[in-house]
Amino acid sequence: MTDNIAKITKVILWVLIALSLFFALMLFINTTEEDTAWISNALSFTKILLYLTIAATVISSLYIFVMIFLAKPKKALVKLIPIVLLGVILLFAYIKASDIPLDMPNYEGDANVPIQVKWSGTGLIMMYVFLGLAVLSVIYVEIARLFK
Prior knowledge:
Layout: H1 2-28, H2 37-71, H3 73-96, H4 114-146
Helix pairs in contact: 2-3, 3-4
């Protein structure tokens, strides 16, 4: 079963790489200010592919988790720890993020609304937390290596 999953994953990854290259090339070739409808269509198609990829990832992850849980419940509960930690970090970042719209003179767009500011702040705080954890883990590994 693992070989089949590896083959399917390899094919899917190559298809996604090909699509990514195709869209990257489309953005650099034949772009004029008068003819930009195809860019909007390409980005809509890309967004649909993104949603499908996220759905497939979530479904396959849940399926694998359920199979592991049915076979070895203790091992499955250990695999829940990172998911719970990620949820705790997300909740912490969401609580700490501000939802006050930014004061941006000469900005005419509609993206400066409280909900978008809140989620952008959440993403930034999560990035800072993970960056800090990465730095701390590198320091820990180097110090632990000195004592071996």
